[in-house]
């Protein structure tokens, strides 16, 4: 039950340091087979670096990643993985179709596969145009088409809606739904909640290199919270973090705890036991946007 065969991607305390900077800080996430998983976070949160480690393109400073039951980047595994991570090097003077044909040769697939990928990515009508004439959105579609070559079971797409207009975003949503319906697993990143909330089965939220939540969209939305005004704020923050495994943000001296509102009495007791004066503690209902904003707001900046 729930064994390795159910898991498409799993990372354990995956970490990447650039000098002293922790770009990815102990990320443990799980993508199940057949699901569309949204990896959500603001710019610079560490999404691309995490995806690159999962693909074996960047060596982790610590922790590990497993893809389809094998170590990330190990021989043979990438055959089952299609990826769009920062524009692949396309030849500017070749058409979209010919660019894909070159890649298809590497992947050991044929022209039928290229046509199917172009069709699925919504690029068939312009497949004969040179790459350099493509708009950003069309380049993005070509990147997705390239990821689809060989019909891999697992797709890893870094910001696939980047540069797409609203119609393009809608098309991408349909494509993802179609892929999921056909049994593919999709791991995609985005910095826009609205882009993942309809499409994704589950969401991992990353902020400043750390995974701050992993849940279904429904769970995130339903997740209760508590608003606490207490002094001294720094002690209240420490206690709250301890009680909620770090799921606390402080905005203007008010703490927002991602915790079951039913825990209000327990949390109050712990605060008082730490000599904190509790002025107010009450449950809060928030929209998904607020939940996301709270989880990804830089405490220091917001204060
Ligand atoms: N090769 C590198 N050398 C040094 N720092 C890096 C390198 N790659 C990424 N970083 C830093 O690591 C952090 C995370 O970057 P990353 O690109 O993974 O974030 P992201 O969530 O994908 O953001 P974006 O959506 O802007 O691409 C950033 O602070 C970035 O500046």
Written description of the protein model:
The radius of gyration is 22 Å and the shape is elongated. The chain is built from eleven helices and 15 strands. The chain is an alpha/beta fold and 303 residues long. The model has no long low-confidence stretch (mean pLDDT 88). Helices cover 34% and strands 28% of the residues. Residues 18, 23, 41, 43-49, 191 line the site of adenosine-5'-triphosphate.
Tell me the layout of helices and strands.
Blueprint: E1 7-18, E2 21-27, E3 30-32, E4 36-40, H1 47-54, E5 62-67, E6 70-71, E7 81-84, H2 96-107, H3 111-120, H4 136-148, E8 154-157, H5 166-181, E9 185-190, H6 193-196, E10 202-207, E11 210-216, H7 217-222, E12 225-231, H8 233-243, E13 248-251, E14 254-257, H9 264-273, E15 277-284, H10 288-296, H11 299-302
Parallel strand pairs: 4-9, 4-10, 7-8, 8-9
Antiparallel strand pairs: 1-2, 1-3, 1-5, 5-6, 10-11, 12-14, 12-15, 13-14
Helix pairs in contact: 2-3, 3-4
Adenosine-5'-triphosphate (ATP) binds at residues 18, 23, 41, 43-49, 191.
């Amino acid at each position: 039950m729930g064994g390795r065969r159910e898991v498409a991607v799993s990372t354990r305390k995956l970490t990447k340091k650039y000098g002293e900077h922790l770009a990815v800080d102990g990320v443990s996430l799980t993508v199940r087979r057949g699901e569309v998983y949204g990896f959500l976070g603001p710019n610079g949160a560490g999404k691309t670096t995490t995806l690159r480690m999962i693909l074996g393109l960047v060596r982790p400073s610590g922790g590990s990643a497993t893809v389809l039951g094998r170590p990330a980047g190990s021989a043979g595994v990438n055959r089952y993985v299609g990826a769009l991570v920062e524009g692949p090097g396309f030849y500017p003077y070749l058409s979209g179709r010919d660019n894909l044909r070159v890649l298809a040769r590497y992947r050991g697939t044929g022209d039928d596969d290229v046509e199917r990928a172009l069709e699925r990515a919504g690029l068939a009508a312009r497949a004969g145009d040179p790459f350099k004439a493509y708009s950003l959105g069309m380049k993005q579609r070509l990147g997705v088409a390239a990821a689809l070559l060989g019909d891999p079971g697992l797709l890893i797409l870094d910001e696939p809606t980047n540069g797409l207009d609203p119609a393009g975003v809608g098309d991408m949503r349909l494509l993802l739904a179609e892929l999921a319906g056909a049994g593919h697993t999709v791991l995609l990143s985005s910095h826009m909640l609205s882009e993942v909330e309809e499409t994704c089965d589950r969401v991992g939220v990353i902020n400043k290199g750390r995974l701050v939540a992993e849940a279904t969209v429904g769970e995130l939305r339903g997740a209760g919270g508590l608003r606490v005004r207490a002094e001294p704020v720094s002690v209240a923050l420490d206690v709250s973090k301890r009680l909620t495994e770090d799921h606390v943000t402080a905005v203007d001296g008010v703490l927002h705890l991602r915790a079951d509102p039913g825990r209000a009495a327990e949390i109050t007791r712990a605060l008082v036991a730490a000599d904190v004066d509790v002025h107010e503690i009450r449950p809060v209902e928030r929209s998904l946007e607020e939940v996301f904003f709270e989880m990804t707001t830089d405490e220091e900046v917001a204060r």
